[in-house]
Specification:
- With 102 residues, the chain is mostly helical.
- The chain has one domain.
- The protein is built from four helices and no strands.
- Helix 2 runs antiparallel to helix 4.
- Bound molecules: iron/sulfur cluster (SF4).
- The site of iron/sulfur cluster has 14 residues, from helix 2.
Length: 102
Amino acid sequence: MNAPWNWSEQGACRTIAPDSLFVQGQEQNRAKSVCLGCHVRTECLAYALDNREEFGIWGGMTERERRALLRRRPHVTSWQRLLETARNTHGQTNDSNRWDIA
Ligand code: SF4
């Protein structure tokens, strides 16, 4: 039997210090840049949104950006399903507006 896929082991951030994703102010922009080429960005952001992660950079978004998104879309019950559908519909890109979910 195969072990379940662990997306976090595939993250572009796996080789950097975890603390570098939990920064404030201007340092967040540098931290977010790590996510630009990450192949598991969708999974990471969906996890953070579905689990209401309060701190840190997840899926290329700061906690403030995630809070704003959650306020705009209070009726989403599964960000994983929504983001995977968006990715499958619109394809994979690396720009900051890759998900048509605003
Ligand atoms: S999206 Fe960013 S925080 Fe999430 S696994 Fe990838 S590099 Fe790490």
